[in-house]
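Handover notes (outgoing to incoming on-call)

Open items:
1. Methionyl-tRNA formyltransferase: sequence verified, structure written out, both below. Nothing else pending on this one.
2. Nothing else urgent.
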Amino acid sequence: MRVVMFGYQTWGHRTLQALLDSEHDVVLVVTHPKSEHAYEKIWSDSVADLAEENGVPVVIRNRPDDEELFERLKEADPDIIVANNWRTWIPPRIFDLPRHGTLNVHDSLLPKYAGFSPLIWALINGEPEVGVTAHMMNDELDAGDIVRQEAVPVGPADTATDLFHKTVDLIAPVTIGALGLIASGQTEFTRQDRSRASFFHKRSLEDSRIDWGWPAEDLERLIRAQSEPYPSAFTFHRGRRLEVLAAVVSEGCYGGTPGRIFYREGDGVVIVAGADARTGRNHGLAITRVRTEDGRELPAAEYFTSMGGYLTNRP
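Methionyl-tRNA formyltransferase structure tokens:
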């Protein structure tokens, strides 16, 4: 099939590479300009560079809503558009333009985790698996019929970075497999159960702030979700920002006020956590590694030279 590809960052790059390696003909690529947004500088392999290296025409747009782009798309005469990590709304006159419509590739197990940063949100929420879904685009974001979907398990120590590497390897088989079904003439696919749908916003600095009212189990996953190269989870100690790089749920239960620097356990320093910590039935969060405001990275047991005092949400 003749394919126009809309995509951005490493997800779009992997999708374009899969298309270039396939039997399909990529006739035009549309991508976003480079961004200085913290999350968009992560996994930032260039779709434009890959297209140009392979002689594919490239159009760069923030939004696909101008007449010049629409005319370029009509001239390209695509059988299908394939989109992955396109960051703005694609209007119906574009997604309905190709003979077979538009296939969107999304890094979650739809209908759950539509929208942005699905791997990070899924890890924070303790999902047992994550994956990639190829679905037909319609008027509602990430809500079209599912053509192909594959999942991978979330391990007990997986970080968001680990899950990125697991799922990015699914892009090629999911995308090319879905195109194969469409090219074969199949038109009926799996409708999404909208009663199970969830929709998440982009991550920002505020979403990395540690709230000691959360249970320790949730905080431990937050810290794994905010692993390098993502901005680290952070708290404040004596008015200074402190990044928490690694932590585990404590073996023992610790009661008191959330945020209290309480007890040395193994290689960690236990912080009281959970809205009902006063009951004494909560596990705490045993921080094992931190980074200070001046960039020093060190074991928590070395940083916290004495017990007592509090970690806080604000300076």
